[in-house]
Design brief:
By secondary structure, the protein is α+β, with helices and mostly antiparallel strands. It contains 13 helices and 18 strands. The longest helix has 20 residues, at 415-434.
């Protein structure tokens, strides 16, 4: 079978498993997904495969011991995925791999079961005997912020120790043009509850004087941005520059902005996406439109997500967000904030010999040198691994492209990019082995 055929076959085994980390009723699916991937790694000749469960979601560690005098590389991806959402919006069945032209559709094809398949296919090329040591670490809770990752690393520090880590969970610049990520925003979140009354009221009898909680919450949420859309939370800083920028019209097309909708913020788009904070209201608990009535609500709740700029601690950014929410409550509304997870941003050097070997391998496979970019999304693992293994090198790249629609309906990935990624990873292992010849 060709590389492409093997990739599709492997994805057909794992994409149909709804390994949704955010939904408790899918705990069994996470276990099934992990066991299936463990079987795939055994089938390509890995002599040491473990499925590790509790307190973290099921993760996989697979190890090919290093030949004498050779380095060890750790390949990382994750097998948990985002919820499917409204199936009616999906053009294809989200739990089926559907080829359409060069793209493979299905939940997890781009984030990050496609990455898992690339690692498996890379190892298949060596018939169980890669030229250097290889560890495969497949996480099971990346999509919920990796809440146990620090404890996991501490508990398995010797098993995942490596000279270099290939984090296949970022993105490419565009289809056919790879990217190495040199900075990552972090992420933190909180749940804010706004209360104005001790019970619901008739809006005709009391409206106009008594403030309702949902309107107060909306005003509080509006205070998170200035008129241009820049984040208005005091105390958030950044100091990262990039050699490339994102074309404005290309961004509009990639993001699917509707006609007339403005882009948020000021300054270069790359800086806004990768180096500045962003804040979003990602959920609201209130009465639905269908069930609404002429009633003033006593309380309303929202979940706020903040992308943390490089160079700042996520915990400090979360405290800045909490301080803003508690100090901007309109009309004396009572505000309660429940702090959530906080994952630090990171900066990733790419001048080490192993990463440079990876750069050469990707250039050969794709026919173009990787672009050094930032990443707006958070990968908390990178910072935790760097702290645990400060001498290690990191190659942060990915398989997704601007049209992959990760976390959204109709997620997809370029099959040709998957194939080139496998070829690049195979070449990387060969070049890494030659560094010690």
């Amino acid at each position: 079978m060709t590389i492409a055929e093997n990739l599709i076959a492997d994805l057909n085994r794992i994409v149909p498993i709804p390994s949704i980390g955010a939904l408790l009723n899918h705990a069994g699916d996470l276990k099934t997904s992990a066991e299936t991937i463990a079987d795939m790694l055994r089938e390509v000749g890995c002599p040491d495969v473990q499925v590790i469960d509790g307190p973290c979601a099921p993760a996989i560690i697979a190890r090919f011991p290093a030949p004498e005098g050779k380095p060890t590389v750790c390949f990382y991806s994750h097998h948990d995925v985002q919820p499917i959402g409204d199936r009616g919006v999906w053009v294809h069945d989200p739990l089926t791999v559907t080829p359409a032209g060069d793209r493979l559709f299905g939940r997890g094809t781009a984030d990050d079961k496609g990455g898992v398949a690339c690692h498996v296919e890379t190892l298949r090329a060596f018939d169980g005997k890669p030229p250097i040591g290889v560890t495969v670490f497949i996480e099971g809770e990346e999509e919920i912020g990796s809440p146990h990752i620090l404890d996991f690393i501490r508990d398995h520090v010797d098993e995942i120790r490596a000279d270099a880590y290939v984090i296949l969970d970022a993105g490419n610049w565009k289809v056919g043009e790879p990217a190495f990520t040199t900075s990552l925003r972090g992420v933190c979140d909180c749940v804010v509850k706004v209360s104005t009354l001790d019970h619901a009221l008739h809006s005709g009898q009391f409206g106009g004087v008594a403030p309702d909680a949902l309107t107060a919450l909306c005003r509080l949420m509006a205070s998170l941005h200035d008129a241009e859309g820049n984040v208005a939370i005091a105390g958030l800083t950044t100091a990262v520059d990039f050699d490339v920028d994102y074309d404005s019209e290309q961004f509009r097309a990639d993001a699917g902005l509707l006609d007339g909708v403005s882009q948020l913020g000021s300054g270069p788009i790359a800086e806004r996406l990768w180096a500045k904070p962003s804040v979003s209201v990602i959920g609201i608990d209130a009465v639905s439109v269908e069930e609404s009535s002429n009633t003033l609500l006593p309380s309303a709740t929202a979940r706020i997500s903040l992308r943390v700029p490089p160079g700042m601690e996520a915990a400090a950014a979360l405290e800045a967000l909490v301080a803003h929410l508690t100090s901007h409550a309109p009309w004396g509304a009572h505000v309660e904030v429940e702090r959530g997870a906080a994952g630090n941003p990171g900066q990733v050097p790419i001048d080490g010999p192993l990463v440079q070997a990876g750069m050469a391998a990707y250039t050969q496979a794709f026919g173009v040198a990787p672009v050094a970019i930032g990443q707006g999304g958070a990968i908390p693992l990178v910072g935790e691994l760097h702290e645990a293994f400060p001498a290690a090198e990191f190659l942060v790249t990915g398989i997704a492209d601007p049209d992959s629609r990760m976390h959204s309906p109709n997620e997809s990935v370029s099959l040709s990019d998957l194939v080139k990624t496998v070829e690049a990873q195979v070449g990387f292992l060969q070049r890494a082995a030659s560094l010690t010849d």
